[in-house]
Design a protein that fits this description.
This is Mitochondrial carrier protein. The protein is mostly helical and about 350 residues long. The protein is about 65% helix and about 5% strand. It has helices spanning about 20-35, 55-75, 80-85, 95-115, 115-130, 140-150, 160-185, 195-225, 230-240, 250-275, 275-280, 285-310, 320-330, 340-345, 350; strands spanning about 5-10, 45-50. The longest helix is centred in the middle third of the chain and has 31 residues, at about 195-225.
Length: about 350
């Protein structure tokens, strides 16, 4: 019997009438003679099964295609959604690309929001070298000096190369970290603490090496007077100091970034894995873990950051870490190595990622 796309059929079940009872056999024979003669001796018992009717395959395909088209239309953002929420465009991209794009946008926004603190930090780190014979300045002095000399816009001076740098830096760092983790895993697929440290250090050094010229441009644009655009800074450096000037301070940068990224990644991973599973995926957990790991790593490695900033300056008297460390301590004391640490710590919360 055919129904709406379904074929209904009856089949006899052999062996169900083997009972020796004469009464049952007589009843079955009488039943077959009266009502089931045309069915060739079918028994009283039967099985019923449902199966798709082969004649309706084309209808099923049409229905399936319509459902898929409806799903695609529902997934595609509508015009009113895009107007209210432009980031809905990310739904059109593959998941991994959308996540990276969202991370890059968030990183650029966080750097822009914290740019005034970063500018103050850089000025505090380098003021003693800029103003010959002068000691470093404090937080309030740096804030006042920037406003006095350049106005409100001065707090964002040097932010553009930082925003441009964050996309390739983050991409290279995350990609390299995953590659190094795969290389360093043991046969069971686990990664030891030492393996995490090495993977984080190598990823940090790789991303720093690739994007280092942009970091030098940011420093020069932020602290040197008379420089207004990235192109001006780049052409002046190339003409007056040569291409090697784009890599001034690379040594202490690599030395400093290796333990910084290693400690940062290691503490972040271990802290998150030590928490109960129900808390591991919560956003506030990631934020708190990132803040703690970044703070600990910064405390350990900040003196090397001060050294590289002063080596990046035009006309810096320091040629190596071994020259810079005693030179800074002699001029500004031991605390001179940590000058600018307070604004750096203040910007860690919104810029942690």
């Amino acid at each position: 019997m055919r129904g709406e796309g379904v074929l209904l059929s009856w089949r006899s079940i052999p062996g169900l009438c083997d009972d020796e009872s004469a009464e049952i056999h007589r009843w079955n024979r009488a039943r077959r003679r009266k009502t089931m003669v045309s069915r060739g001796g079918a028994t009283l018992f039967a099985s019923v099964s449902l199966a798709p009717d082969g004649n309706n395959n084309s209808d099923d395909k049409i229905q399936k295609g319509a459902e898929e088209e409806r799903d695609i239309q529902e997934a595609f953002p509508r015009a009113e959604q895009l107007i209210k929420h432009p980031l809905a465009l990310l739904a059109l991209f593959p998941k991994d690309l959308a996540l990276f794009s969202a991370g890059a946008i968030a990183g650029a926004l966080s750097k822009t929001l914290t740019a005034p603190l970063d500018r103050v930090k850089l000025l505090m780190q380098t003021h003693g070298l800029r103003a010959s014979g002068s000691k470093g300045i404090g937080l309030l002095e740096a804030i006042t000096l920037i406003h006095k000399e350049e106005g409100i816009k001065g707090y964002w001076k040097g932010n553009l190369p930082q925003v441009i740098r964050i996309i390739p830096y983050s991409a290279v760092q995350l990609f390299a970290y995953e590659i190094y983790k795969k290389i360093l895993r043991n046969e069971d697929g686990d990664l030891s603490v030492i393996g995490r440290l090495i993977a984080g250090a190598c990823a940090g050094m790789t991303s720093t090496l690739v994007t280092y010229p942009l970091d030098v441009l940011r420093l020069r644009l932020a602290v040197e007077p008379g420089c207004r655009t990235m192109s001006q800074v780049a052409f002046n450096m190339l003409r007056e100091e040569g291409i090697a000037s784009f890599y001034c301070g690379l040594g202490p940068s690599l030395i400093g970034i290796a333990p910084y990224i290693a400690v940062n990644f290691c503490i972040f991973d271990l802290m998150k894995k030590s928490l109960p599973e129900k808390y591991q995926k919560r956003p506030e957990t990631s934020l708190a873990t990132a803040l703690v790991s970044a703070t600990v790593a910064t405390l350990m490695c900040y003196p090397l950051d001060t050294v590289r900033r002063q080596m990046q300056m035009k006309g810096s008297p320091f040629n190596s870490v071994f020259d810079a460390l005693p030179g800074i301590v002699e001029r500004d004391g031991f605390l001179g190595l940590y000058r600018g640490f307070v604004p750096n710590a203040l910007k860690s919360l919104p810029s942690s990622r």
